[in-house]
Amino acid sequence: MSISDPLVLGTRGSELALRQANVVRSRLEAAGHRVELETITTRGDEATDTPISEIGDEAVFTKELDRALLQGGVDLAVHSLKDIPSTVPSGLALAAIGEREDPRDAFVAHPSFDGHLHDLPEGATVATASLRRTAQLLTWRSDLEVVPVRGNVDTRLEKLGESDWTGMVLAVAGLVRLGLSLHIRDRIDPSLIVPAVGQGALGIACREDQDALRDLLRETLHHAPSGHAANAERAFLKKVGGGCQVPLGAWAHIDDGTLVLDACIAALDGSEHYRDERRCAPEDGAAVGRKLAADLLAMGGDHILDDVLGESREGTSNSPFRP
Ligand SMILES: NCc1[nH]cc(CCC(=O)O)c1CC(=O)O
């Protein structure tokens, strides 16, 4: 099947999503294709007061776009890889993984606090949108008060300014892509907070049966080292299961030709924490990710899963046709 002209590129409407979509658009245009943007609102954009972990749907930022892809209304969709569930709906393909931005988390200080993350006073309040960051912050410093915050990156920064929090933790990549790096006080070392699966990378999806388009996306947008890292991290996530309801982190990178995968599963209150690192050939990342997941679960991560998922542990679905 030939490639549509113009190509309709589906994206969420947030400032960050549009920036990311425009990066992809420019690449495709440079390769000689016309591209039209189609903005689609997702449940994650609407339910801005509910913590993502409570919506309980892994596909909260992708389902409406998946549906548009399957129905043919859009040809490709651009997402933050972090927002794409570890199992892509049947009929769709993750055709390319774009080059990764800095995968680390950022500490952003309240305007009145001129210290760094390591200078946080006893009992300081830190806001974050993720269970992973909460669990790891509390593993490090059980005296901290960690509070939830939601919304787009700029909304979160606004909330910080109006709050009595000492600071906030969010992804470096989002801030950098929005031109807001000035707000980054610290890029947090992954040895302190393991980044989220896929954080900082872009995922480009299309229909599985569109061979010519898949080839084009791979040739123009795929970045092999980021792809290998993503495969390892996503295999880890899939094996553990539970999506964003589970406090887990996994970060892979290529070091001198070797893939290094560092991952953890932590109790939300920081009381328990299982973590290990594996090295392998870049092509073997997925198998090693699955194995590391099995090992961390066996070490005790399994109990953490039981605690956070309880009865909902079976039967989660990311079908785009499920309400
Ligand atoms: N969950 C929302 C989301 N999805 C992707 C990013 C940041 C960019 C990225 O990780 O690529 C963010 C914001 C954040 O976590 O601070």
Automatic annotation (TrEMBL):
EC no.?
2.5.1.61
What UniProt keywords are attached to this protein's entry?
Porphyrin biosynthesis, Transferase
In what residue span(s) does the Porphobilinogen deaminase N-terminal domain sit?
7-213
Q: Write down how the cofactor binds this protein.
A: Binds 1 dipyrromethane group covalently.
User: What pathway is it annotated to?
Assistant: Porphyrin-containing compound metabolism; protoporphyrin-IX biosynthesis; coproporphyrinogen-III from 5-aminolevulinate: step 2/4
**Gene Ontology cellular component annotations, sorted alphabetically:** cytoplasm
Gene Ontology terms, MF aspect: hydroxymethylbilane synthase activity
Cofactor(s) named in the record: dipyrromethane
Q: Which InterPro entries match?
A: HemC (IPR000860), Porphobilin_deaminase_cofac_BS (IPR022419), Porphobilin_deaminase_N (IPR022417), Porphobilinogen_deaminase_C (IPR022418), Porphobilinogen_deaminase_C_sf (IPR036803)
Q: Where is the Porphobilinogen deaminase C-terminal domain?
A: 230-297
Give the record's GO biological process terms: protoporphyrinogen IX biosynthetic process
Q: Please indicate which superkingdom the organism of origin belongs to.
A: Bacteria
S-(dipyrrolylmethanemethyl)cysteine modified-residue sites: C244
Main EC class of this protein?
Answer: transferase
Q: Which reaction does it catalyse?
A: 4 porphobilinogen + H2O = hydroxymethylbilane + 4 NH4(+)
Tell me which PROSITE patterns the record gives: PORPHOBILINOGEN_DEAM
Describe the function of this protein: Tetrapolymerization of the monopyrrole PBG into the hydroxymethylbilane pre-uroporphyrinogen in several discrete steps.
Please state which protein family the record places this protein in.
Answer: Belongs to the HMBS family.
* Assembly information from the UniProt record: Monomer.
Miscellaneous section: The porphobilinogen subunits are added to the dipyrromethane group.
Protein name (database record): Porphobilinogen deaminase
Q: Which gene encodes it?
A: hemC
